[in-house]
Design brief:
Length: 529
């Protein structure tokens, strides 16, 4: 590799290995350890990273957007230049196939370039200007100008299931860097080598584009101590997390309990309910096969995995249910990210099968060795589902639960017991959809993204995407971790009243030197004042 993996912490433009304790990563396909050992970050290294980020912030936040865009594009270019090495390490630590690795890396570089465009345009500043009216009666109106500004150093937690796109150089990092926030990443311990290899690309890009030292750092740790120290550090101003509900809530509590509370934007997964209307049960529609592929995609290790499918009792629903189970059976086993994840999946799957009123629909129930997992489908009545909170849990893996409802009223009653979700999906023909206003409204209340006649896996990176949802899918349903609106997590508004023109930020100056769209006295315009 051009950048050898040392297992050290990346602190600004340097590296550090003060910790005496080490940990390893493993190849899920073979069970063998990878060739590297990683130092556990110490408290002093946490402090060094956050101090560097604080010093960098004073410079980085005031850089022109075009300079931050240059940095983000340089990161993308470094990742592409090191693609072969990055894909090799990714595959060794994740057990995922080469096609998935390359596709995810492409998504990551695409995100970086999308946020570079956001940085360059300065659209995220959301400028509002109300000019003075000194002759207004009974009181004169002052000159008031408002724009967004970055919060400060952001801590990002790498995600287990997306070593590229939701980790070191993922959407949280890219969106924070775009608006002027330095980033300190806690690498995920399951793919620490991938995290370091990506981190070195960011480190080099920062040097090449003359960014202030400390705009990026990365720390490694195998347990919860490091994450807690980063959230509690007084220099941390916001946190981005993708992972389990337990992990997200623990970090949110830490953020809220600080002397200065900070926002923790945690995406905690969901079961992503799917409603199958009668017309969609027709075998010629192909939805059973499509959803079997969605359930088992990536061994079911997606936060948008369709873990709950509801339909109305009848011959069509029976046919669809049997077909879905047969299609999942036909997929066979897949390698999960880690033996612990595979073991937890097996425990939860068995627990679901053992619940009162639950029928196992798939015929294969035993898995392969260690990380190999077999997909599963279970069936339960709506009445049994409603009174059993245990059936509403997320099963992280290739599993889905079918719920048989007596009629549409029973379906609505059942959906009302479901918590907040990242997605909700509805399958049906045009006539059914036009008469399903109540159902569509209810699903909209439950989710951050409502799909019609599609599968929820696969999250398009674009301005209109919302990858968030009502609690407990996320800690704040107003924000997304995918798409350009992700920057809104790392900024806050500041109003300037009666400031002299010479000290106003460029975005608020009369001559509009940035050439951006602004609201001036209630009208959207790019014209100077």
């Amino acid at each position: 590799m051009q950048y050898p993996i040392t297992g050290h912490q990346l602190l600004g433009f340097s590296e550090s290995s003060l910790g005496k304790n080490t940990f390893e990563t493993f190849n899920p396909q073979t069970g063998a350890p990878t060739p590297w050992k990683f130092c556990e970050a110490t408290d002093s290294e946490v402090h060094m990273a956050m101090e560097l980020a604080t010093r960098a912030f004073t410079t980085y936040r005031d850089m022109p957007g075009i300079r931050r865009a240059e940095f983000l594009r340089a990161i993308a270019a470094e990742l592409e230049q090191q693609q072969e090495d990055l894909v090799s390490v990714y595959m060794q630590e994740s057990g995922l196939p080469e096609g998935r690795a390359r596709g995810e890396l492409g998504r990551t570089t695409g995100q970086l370039r999308a946020f570079a465009a956001v940085a360059e345009s300065a659209s995220w500043m959301d400028v509002r200007i109300d000019t003075a009216q000194p002759d207004r009666t009974p009181l004169p109106k002052p000159d008031i100008r408002k724009c967004m500004r970055p919060l400060g150093p952001v801590v990002v937690f790498g995600a287990s299931n997306f070593p590229f796109a939701f980790s070191t150089a993922g959407g949280d990092t890219a969106s924070a860097l775009a608006v002027g926030c330095p980033v300190v990443v806690k690498g995920h311990p399951m793919h620490a080598g991938t995290s370091e290899a990506v981190g070195r690309c960011i480190q080099l890009a920062a040097r090449k584009t003359a960014m202030p030292e400390g705009v990026f750092s990365q720390l490694q740790g195998s347990g919860t101590v490091l994450g807690g120290a980063l959230v509690r550090h007084p220099a941390t101003k916001a946190v981005g997390f993708t992972g389990s509900k337990a992990g997200g809530l623990a970090l949110a509590r830490l953020g809220a309990e600080r002397g200065e509370p900070i926002p923790v934007f945690a995406e905690m997964g969901s079961i992503n309910p799917v409603v199958v209307l009668p017309s969609a049960t027709d075998p010629t529609q192909g939805w059973a096969k499509a959803y079997a592929q969605s359930v088992t995609l990536g061994a079911g290790q997606f936060c948008t995995n369709p873990g709950l499918v509801l339909g109305i009792k009848g011959p069509g629903w029976n046919t669809f249910s049997a077909a879905l189970a047969a299609e999942v059976d036909a997929v066979g086993s897949a390698c999960m990210l880690h033996p612990k994840i595979a073991a937890q999946y097996q425990v939860l799957r068995s627990d679901f099968f053992a619940q009162p009123g639950v029928t196992q629909m798939t015929s294969i129930s035993s898995d392969g060795d260690d990380t190999q997992a077999i997909g599963a489908v279970a069936l339960v009545s709506a009445a049994a589902f409603r009174k059993n909170a245990g059936l509403k849990r997320e099963v992280f893996g290739p599993f889905t639960l079918l719920v048989t409802c007596e009629d549409q009223e029973d379906l609505v009653r059942t959906l009302n017991t479901v918590e907040g979700q990242l997605t909700a999906s509805l399958l049906g023909n045009e006539a059914e959809l036009e008469s399903a206003a109540t159902l569509i409204s209810l699903l909209g209340d439950k989710a951050g993204r409502l799909l019609v006649n599609g599968v929820p896996t696969g999250v398009e990176v674009c301005p209109s995407m919302h990858h968030g949802g009502p609690f407990p899918a996320t800690t704040d349903a107003r924000f997304t971790s995918v798409g350009t609106d992700a920057v809104k997590r790392w900024i806050r508004p500041l109003s300037y009243q009666n400031l002299p023109a010479g000290v106003l930020p460029p975005a608020l100056k009369n001559d509009n030197p940035l050439g951006i769209l602004r609201m001036v006295n209630g009208q959207m315009t790019t014209d100077p004042i």
